[in-house]
Design goal:
The chain has helices at 21-37, 57-71, 86-89, 133-136, 163-180, 305-309, 334-341, 361-366, 371-383, 389-407, and strands spanning 2-6, 14-15, 18-19, 42-46, 75-79, 100-103, 113-117, 120-128, 146-147, 157-158, 188-194, 196-197, 216-217, 224-225, 232-233, 236-240, 246-247, 255-257, 274-279, 288-291, 298-303, 320-325, 345-350. It is an alpha/beta fold. It folds into three domains: 2-291, Metallo-dependent phosphatases (Purple Acid Phosphatase, chain A, domain 2), CATH 3.60.21; 298-361; 369-407. Heterodimer of SbcC and SbcD.
């Protein structure tokens, strides 16, 4: 049995205001061609089908056409990501046919999909949508959870406010299901998960997952499940969220981010986009990366106006460009002239060659402080004191409610 793993389609996204509809359409054509040529049985899409919780009509139509074509050829399994609205995307999941499966809710974690061919199970797929710690830590709580108030006999258990806690709880549910419903020899265990696993490298285009806790999760949390005396080894973690194609090292089993099929920031210029092909009939799953040709290449160019006028970068005329002009003095009519020479330029900067190193989006992300940290700094600056425990809890609850309301709006 052959399976394609893809993720982070982000249908409806733009790049510096430019529509990516045609770039997405080129990807869908390539994906359908691969499914047909490789005789693929199932397509796994690990979250962020859409770029917004409320997609535009154009985005919905494009998704409908793409999924119709894919389900004519293979079974399609979709989990939700942090950009999707789990409630909206999962509204009709119980009514969908067997060709299209959408898993959006934590209640479905221990309700796997068995991929069957020739009378036997070739792979069992467990689905982990994006698990927001605040909204799922009470849903997934088990005996390992903390007690809200140890002195209150009526207090309920709840998991810690972190991605590690909720994904570990999800892993325990999967392990319990595997213990109760063992697979026959030769069947593979695949876990789809939309999360930021430790060791993964982000780009400038992912939305931060951090809400009231550390966002990164050890990939090993999902690679060995079940009873302590005989844990089931997960054969493959089909990860989503990071847009750079990559494997997570030292995870105990293959953990793969196929990356977004379309580039969403100039930090992805030069990346080779791909989808990942698995073959359950080979010992190592025969993992192959099927390349995707970009509809329009991305170029980051640093140059002088003299070099640009002389045609030094003529080979970039058909590319989307981010251009940094390094002349000591800002050229007259800068943006207009750059775009007249490179017509698909989306961003223009002037950074003199002898100026201090500019602060990039990546620098901002690395030094970005959490809302709670900013609140604590505000209290020190304005009130000359530290927030107490009760005040920190109030701030944290407010921030999480605002983010939850924004995600569901």
């Amino acid at each position: 049995m052959k399976i394609i793993h893809t993720s982070d389609w982000h249908i409806g996204r733009t790049l510096h205001g430019a529509s990516l509809e045609e770039a997405h359409q080129a990807f869908f054509e390539a994906l359908v061609d691969y499914v047909r040529a490789e005789e693929v049985d199932a397509v796994l899409m690990s979250g962020d089908l859409f770029d917004r919780a409320v997609p535009s009509i154009t985005s919905l139509r494009q998704a409908r056409v793409a999924l119709t074509r894919l389900t004519d050829l293979a079974r399609v399994i979709i989990t939700t990501g942090n950009h999707d609205s789990a409630d909206r995307l999962g509204l009709t999941d119980r009514f969908l046919n067997d060709r299209l499966v959408v898993r959006a809710l934590p209640d479905d974690i221990d309700r796997p999909i068995d991929l069957v061919a020739e009378g036997r199970v070739h792979a069992r797929v467990y689905t982990l949508p994006y698990l927001d710690p605040e909204t799922t830590r009470r849903v997934l709580v088990d005996a390992t959870g903390d007690i809200a108030d140890p002195d209150d006999p009526d207090a309920v258990h709840q998991l810690a406010r972190s991605h590690e806690a909720v994904i570990a709880a999800a892993a325990r549910r999967i392990g319990a299901h595997l213990d109760a419903h063992p697979l026959e020899d030769g069947a593979r265990v695949i876990v789809m998960a939309h999360a930021f696993f430790t060791g993964g490298l982000p780009t400038e285009s992912e939305r931060c997952l951090e809400v009231g806790g550390v966002e990164q999760v050890s990939a090993g949390t999902l690679t060995r499940l079940g009873k302590a005396d005989g844990p089931v080894r997960v054969d493959y973690v089909a990860a989503g969220h990071l847009h750079r194609p990559q494997d997570v090292r030292d995870a105990g089993a293959p953990v793969r981010y196929p990356g977004s099929p379309v580039a969403f920031s100039f930090s992805e210029a030069g990346y080779e986009k791909s989808v990942t092909l698995l073959d359950t009939d080979t010992p190592d799953l025969g993992i192959r990366h099927l390349p995707l040709t970009p509809w329009r290449a991305l170029r980051r160019i640093a140059t002088t106006m003299e070099q640009l006028r002389a045609g030094r970068h003529e080979d970039a005329r058909d590319s989307w460009c981010e251009v940094t002009i390094t002349d000591d003095a800002r050229p007259h009519n800068l943006v207009h002239e750059v775009r007249s020479l490179l017509p698909h330029t989306l961003a223009v900067f002037h950074v003199p060659a002898h100026a201090p190193t500019p602060v990039t989006a990546a620098d901002i992300r690395r030094h970005q402080r959490s809302p709670l940290t900013l609140a604590q700094e505000f209290a020190r600056t304005v009130g000359n004191r530290e927030l107490n425990a009760a005040e920190r809890d109030v701030w944290r609850d407010v921030f999480e409610k605002v983010q939850a309301d924004h995600a569901n709006s």
